[in-house]
Amino acid sequence: MVTNEFFVTTRVGKWYVDNGTESHGPYLSQHDATADAIDAAEQVSGRKKLAAVLLKLPGSKASLVWTSRRGREGATAEPAVEKEVQASL
């Protein structure tokens, strides 16, 4: 199953949410952009599709913030989902 990815990124001091060819923003903070990305991902995942929110900072790999399989990531990150998301980057 394909994962619908929402990337939280920063450009010129503003925060954006990128999903496929669409970009939403600017947001004033990383928190606001991440919250909006999670809301959008939850709506998509509510239709039985996998969704993930990733933080992509310049010069670094994307890191998993949230996935529809487990909710907010952190200590409860599911390694299989993270591998799946990283493999698709």
Architecture overview:
- The protein is of the alpha+beta class and 89 residues long.
- The protein is built from 2 helices and 6 strands, in the order E-E-E-H-E-E-E-H.
- The chain has a 6-stranded mixed sheet, with helices on both faces.
- The longest helix is centred in the middle third of the chain and has 16 residues.
Largest sheet: 6 strands, mixed
Helices and strands, in order, run as EEEHEEEH
| End-to-end C-alpha gap | 15 Å
User: Residue ranges: pLDDT <50 for 5 or more in a row?
Assistant: 72-89
Please tally the helical runs, counting DSSP H or I stretches of 4 or more residues: 2
Mean pLDDT: 81
Computed CA radius of gyration, to the nearest angstrom: 12 Å
- Order of strands across the main sheet: 3-2-1-4-5-6
Q: Tell me, briefly, the overall form.
A: globular
Percent of residues in β-strands: 35-45%
**Quaternary organization:** single chain
Summary keywords:
89 residues, alpha+beta, six-stranded mixed beta sheet, 6 strands, globular, disordered C terminus
In short:
By secondary structure, this protein is an alpha+beta fold.
Secondary-structure blueprint:
Elements: E1 3-11, E2 14-19, E3 22-27, H1 30-45, E4 50-56, E5 63-67, E6 71-72, H2 79-87
Parallel strand pairs: 1-4
Antiparallel strand pairs: 1-2, 2-3, 4-5, 5-6
